[in-house]
Amino acid sequence: MSVQKLIDTVQEAARTSQSINVYVVGSMGKDYRSGFLTLYRGELVQFALHDKGGRAALAYLPNYEIKEVMTSPVQGTPGRDVDVPSVKELLEAIAKSRWVHNP
Predict the structure, then answer these.
(1) Dist. CA 91–CA 103, nearest whole Å
(2) For residue range 16-28, what is the model confidence (pLDDT) as tens digits?
(3) 3-class secondary-structure state, position 97
(4) CB within 10 Å: which end of the chain, N or C, has fewer?
(5) Quick one: CA torsion of 31, 94, 43, 82, rounded to 10 degrees?
């Protein structure tokens, strides 16, 4: 899944009030980083990347090289993290990240 496909998936989930989990695998330089986000009924309720959560994790995205993205349905009702960015803020940050294709 490319960065654009990730953006499209998040936009579609927000627009149609879907509930999905998105798992992201990537790196910053030589350091492996993983992250996830959860949209519940179209609203971002959880976002974390490496060891940061919420808006603090957005700072990582411009230097983050996305290598793999996986999605799954949300089971149950997820908790809401503190200081979660809006979908718009998340999408703007994702657009600045890079996609690395590893065949």
Answers:
(1) 26
(2) 999 999 998 888 8
(3) coil
(4) C
(5) 50
